[in-house]
Amino acid sequence: MKGVVAAVVLIAGLAAMPTVGQAGTELDFALVNKTGYPIEEVYLSPSGTSDWQENVISGDVLEDTQVGRIAFSVGGKDRKCLWDLRVVYSDRATAEWGRLDLCSSNRITLRYDQNSGKTQAEIK
Question: What is the tens place of the pLDDT at every residue in 76-90?
Fold first, then answer.
């Protein structure tokens, strides 16, 4: 299993995005779904490892246009800035991105381009 991560997620509408979890955690971020499809699973893992962590939205669905506030912490020597992200859609299709710098990002917006068939992650 890739490292040890504690995660909490709250699904909210675009207008309101409350924070859940440990206040001030530097790796917390908002995940914005603008793909046109529901996201049923979200996985994070430190870059450079081969296994995905547990589903950080277990039991929830991130509908199109919704924002999920993902709050998690990695303590001590396990703290890393570069993370990989994997999402699983309701039709079981997946998309992955590597080496996302969560130390300098607080918002990831996912967009699907029907013309190219690719999902892009915009990091801010």
Answer: 666 788 999 999 999
